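User: Predict the structure for this protein chain, please.
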Amino acid sequence: MADPTMTNFGARKNPMLTLANPAKAYPDWSLPSDQAVNFIAGSIARTEIPAGAKLYRVYGGPARINGAYWSPDKPDEKTEGDWRSQNAVEPWWNAGTDVAVLTVKDGTSIHVWSGGITSQPALYANGDRIPDYFLVGGGRQCFVQSWLPEIRDAIEIAPDGRTPWKPSTDDTYRVTPNVQPSGDVDSLKFTDPVQKVAIYLYEGGTAMRALAKVLDAVHATDPKAAGGPADMAADNLITLANSILRNLATDPQAARDIAKRAAGLRRVIDIDTSMLTGPDAKTAQQADALLTVIVNGAAMLVQDG
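Assistant: Here is the predicted structure, written as structure tokens:
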């Protein structure tokens, strides 16, 4: 029987939640603190994936095919909501329309970080929390550092068809395209750690817009380059910043909680610079550097409680 407390995108009202892993770095094989918080406490393990093994990734919209987070199981959920609930994926992070398969090449193996997926508070499309509703998580995920040469050379990533569910037609929880800063951005104070995250989110959104223009220009000669995902990533960053700004005066704790959510952005935003050269590559590197600054600042808020 369907759960009457579950929304169409998988959030449940007042469920039992998992405990997030502390925001700390794992020096062995360099799992950074902004990734550690995406796992259930105590569940992280360094895992060897042998030759011939496959991992699967659901992607679409701002979530690209070659992102860092993969599942050991091919998605078989009957509804989009079931998948989002188990994997704690917001609709405005990932459209959830396509499946990719990662195969470890013959004669090789890779090491990944694996563990349980922690709960996430559910958010409206404007970035505000939905009171009492959460994406429960509890599934399994692998953090694959595919940018490292030893892993990049040992894997193959390919499309594997569409997801098994019908895409949701309800846009209540999806970010409106081309989100713009709202309110008095210049009023933000760099000395306040929450407001500093908002400042960097706005700057990151601007950098992503610039990257989108570069990718669209390159698209004429390289069809793999397209600015759409970068534009949607910019929408996500600016939406979070707008929500922080909107809550600063009326609900400072809500603003802090929203800023802390930015610690998980690396899970859903992946910047592929391999197709760019010269000044274009520098634009991508600037966007990537700002994303690192954002997640590090948010991870510090998580660590401080």
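The chain has two domains: 12-162, 185-304.
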